[in-house]
């Protein structure tokens, strides 16, 4: 592929955010709280990354903005049906299904991180929510259950995201993982 046949779609902030979030999520998930400091800091870093990404979703480059990849439910459903029958159009940025997945993952990781902060406050009386959350067994058990469910749900959605990336890469004959590394996608029959 020649350079003039490509266009930069993913800016450096989006790409660094994406792979950094992958690293800190799996660090937090695989440590399961042991060592606690590593698990906790991975969660804090994930929330900080998401804070930057959410801001970038409003002020960033074209394909980084929520307005570019948050579609009406009817548009997303129509896209999924078209994809199943092999007539879905290619998008330069996130397609409607990818946009929904990006939004879902952002919300799930934020909820997982916040539930971890509640757990840390309820169990250890520590962290940013210390003093706001009672240090009780009931709060600790409830927060732990919510945190684990959200973390596992996030992991399941990540798996679905990977399947969607592979499917779309094969369907549209482009390496979406590579484009999230170098930022470029090929020009052609895409929509916006």
TrEMBL record:
One of its GO terms (biological process) is respiratory electron transport chain. Its main location: membrane. Keywords: Cell membrane, Membrane, Transmembrane, Transmembrane helix. GO terms for molecular function: electron transfer activity; heme binding. The chain crosses the membrane at residues 12-29, 41-59, 97-122, 149-170. GO terms for cellular component: plasma membrane. SUPFAM superfamilies: Transmembrane di-heme cytochromes. It is a multi-pass membrane protein. Residues 9-183 form the Cytochrome b561 bacterial/Ni-hydrogenase domain. Pfam families: Ni_hydr_CYTB. This is Cytochrome b. It comes from Modicisalibacter ilicicola DSM 19980.
């Amino acid at each position: 592929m020649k350079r003039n046949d490509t266009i930069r779609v993913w800016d450096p902030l989006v790409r660094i955010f994406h792979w950094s979030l992958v690293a800190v999520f799996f660090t937090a998930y695989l440590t399961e709280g042991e060592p606690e400091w590593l698990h906790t800091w991975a969660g804090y870093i994930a929330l900080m990354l998401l804070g930057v990404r959410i801001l970038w979703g409003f002020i960033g480059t074209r394909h980084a903005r929520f307005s570019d990849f948050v579609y009406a439910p009817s548009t997303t459903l129509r896209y999924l049906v078209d994809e199943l029958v092999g007539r879905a159009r290619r998008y330069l940025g996130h397609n409607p299904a990818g946009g929904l997945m990006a939004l879902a993952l952002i919300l799930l990781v934020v909820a997982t991180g916040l539930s971890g902060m509640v757990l840390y406050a309820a169990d250890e009386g520590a962290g940013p929510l210390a003093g706001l959350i009672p240090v009780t067994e009931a709060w600790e058990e409830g927060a732990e259950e919510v945190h684990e469910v959200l973390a596992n749900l996030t992991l399941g959605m990540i798996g679905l995201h990977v399947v969607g990336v592979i499917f779309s890469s094969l369907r549209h004959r482009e390496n979406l993982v590579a484009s999230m590394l170098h930022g470029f996608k090929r020009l052609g029959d895409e929509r916006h």
